[in-house]
């Protein structure tokens, strides 16, 4: 924290309080960032990285727009993001586990799903809701507070301050270390924090930065500011990374949420956090914006490749089923949807397709005979079935 006292884009303020973890009082300094600038000077190499990322983002968006039902690929991207963004916060789950849990009815999810997986599922539900809202609503503090409440629902981060700007001090660092050893201390709570958050929201659509700063650079800067303000008691990282995709959608760079940037950041977690802290200590935006542009560009490339491979697989599976079962409409529907719903049970299929239990059993049985589906796990009642080839593509 000592370097933050010389920051050219913020200041430190003294804070005091009581740390119940150790039963002791503390004195420390919190960092208060200045408002985001309307312009930023970046070297040509950074603008080139931003331009390249923007081009790859355009290719990704174009690929998704060719699909009559974009949900077939957006659902996969959202689940990959749910796994990656949660891992960055220390909550780990496997992609197959997530898809399997989502097959369960709501009551079964509450009773049978482990806490870590429920937390990942919370994010997936929040993201699905956010992507539905963003076409009709601007990004607001109220929207983000509602998303944060959903993300932390039923977890250790749930509590009286969930769904609202925090009224307590938070710290970033090891949980078992005292406040004096925190890696970073965000601004203290109160009216000043709320005012800074409101100005951050205004900056997202303000005329001057929109006209002067390229979109991906603005998304990077907005992400830095959000994480530095840390407006909630928990879930800030997940909400902040979700905001990045919402910005891209709100401004028309993405028509569908097919970008999942967190897996790339997860694999470079230390570098990611170091870059964010370095902006505060040096005031130099260039390294962070270049790093973020690399993340967007790399995930856009891999996302484009994933979409193309999924669409090719969908074509192959559909042709196989149509050739073998020309009159089996339900089996064809299930096969066509496997790239978005690669795991299912008879009851899950019945909920989604609305046919009788026996009709779904027959369709799944036919797909098992063709090798399109195979059993997953060892459950005897309401067995799960999956297409392993889909997971080889989406979990790569």
Summarize the structure.
The chain is mainly alpha-helical.
Can you offer a commentary on this structure?
This protein is mostly helical and 396 residues long. It has 17 helices and 5 strands. The chain folds into 2 domains: 36-305, Fido-like domain (Fic-like fold, Orthogonal Bundle), CATH 1.10.3290; 325-394, Arc Repressor Mutant, subunit A. Helix content is 59%, strand content 7%. A 3-stranded antiparallel sheet has the order 3-5-4. It has a two-stranded antiparallel ribbon with strand order 1-2. Helix 5 packs parallel to helix 10 (236-250). The radius of gyration is 23 Å and the shape is globular. It starts with 9 loop residues before the first strand and ends with a helix.
Order of helices and strands: EEHHHHHHHHHHHHHHEHHEEH
Low-confidence stretches: none
Number of strands: 5
The name of the CATH topology of the largest domain is Fic-like fold
The overall average pLDDT, rounded, is: 94
Shape: globular
In terms of DSSP E residues, the strand content is 5-15%
Estimate the helix proportion, in percent: 55-70%
CATH superfamily heading of the largest domain: Fido-like domain
Number of helices, counting only DSSP H or I runs of 4 residues or more: 17
Placed side by side, the strands forming the largest sheet appear as: 3-5-4
Distance between the termini: 38 Å
The tally of structural domains comes to 2
Major sheet, described briefly?
3 strands, antiparallel
Layout of helices and strands, plus pairs?
Layout: E1 10-19, E2 24-33, H1 44-65, H2 71-87, H3 95-103, H4 106-112, H5 115-133, H6 141-152, H7 191-205, H8 207-212, H9 215-229, H10 236-250, H11 262-266, H12 269-282, H13 286-324, H14 329-337, E3 343-344, H15 346-353, H16 357-370, E4 374-376, E5 384-386, H17 388-394
Antiparallel strand pairs: 1-2, 3-5, 4-5
Helix pairs in contact: 1-13, 2-5, 5-6, 5-10, 6-10, 7-9, 9-10, 9-13, 13-14, 13-17, 14-16, 15-16
């Amino acid at each position: 924290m000592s370097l933050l006292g010389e920051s050219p884009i913020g200041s430190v303020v003294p804070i005091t309080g009581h740390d119940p973890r150790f039963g002791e009082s503390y004195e420390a300094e919190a960092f208060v960032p200045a408002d985001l600038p309307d312009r930023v000077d970046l070297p040509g190499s950074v603008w080139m990285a931003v331009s390249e990322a923007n081009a790859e983002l355009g290719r990704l968006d174009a690929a998704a727009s060719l699909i009559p039902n974009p949900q077939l690929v957006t659902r996969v991207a959202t689940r990959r993001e749910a796994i990656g963004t949660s891992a960055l916060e220390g909550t780990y789950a496997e992609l197959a586990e997530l898809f399997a849990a989502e097959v369960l009815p709501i009551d079964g999810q509450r009773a049978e799903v482990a806490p870590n997986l429920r937390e990942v599922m919370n994010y997936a539900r929040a993201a699905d809701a956010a992507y539905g809202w963003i076409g009709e609503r601007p990004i607001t503090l109220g929207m983000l507070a509602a998303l944060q409440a959903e993300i932390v629902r039923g977890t250790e981060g749930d509590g009286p301050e969930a769904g609202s700007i925090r009224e307590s001090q938070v710290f970033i660092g090891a949980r078992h270390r005292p406040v004096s050893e925190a890696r970073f201390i965000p601004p203290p709570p109160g009216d000043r924090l709320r005012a800074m958050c409101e100005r951050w929201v205004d900056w997202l659509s303000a005329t001057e930065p929109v006209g002067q700063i390229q979109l991906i650079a603005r998304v990077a800067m907005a992400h830095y500011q959000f994480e530095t303000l840390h407006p909630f008691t928990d879930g800030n990282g997940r909400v902040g990374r979700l905001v990045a995709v919402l910005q891209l959608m709100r401004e028309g760079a993405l028509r569908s949420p097919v970008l999942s940037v967190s897996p790339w950041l997860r694999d470079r977690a230390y570098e990611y956090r170091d870059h964010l802290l370095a902006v505060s200590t040096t005031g130099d935006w260039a390294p962070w914006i270049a790093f973020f542009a690399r993340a967007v560009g790399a995930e856009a490339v891999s996302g484009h490749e994933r979409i193309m491979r999924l669409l090719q697989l969908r074509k192959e599976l559909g042709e196989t089923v149509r050739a073998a079962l020309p009159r089996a409409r339900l089996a064809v529907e299930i096969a066509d949807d496997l790239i978005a719903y690669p795991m299912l049970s008879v009851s899950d299929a019945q909920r989604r397709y609305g046919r009788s239990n026996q009709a779904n059993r027959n369709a799944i049985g036919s797909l098992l005979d063709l090798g399109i589906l195979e059993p997953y796990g060892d459950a005897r009642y309401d067995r799960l079935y999956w297409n392993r080839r889909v997971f080889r593509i989406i979990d790569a």
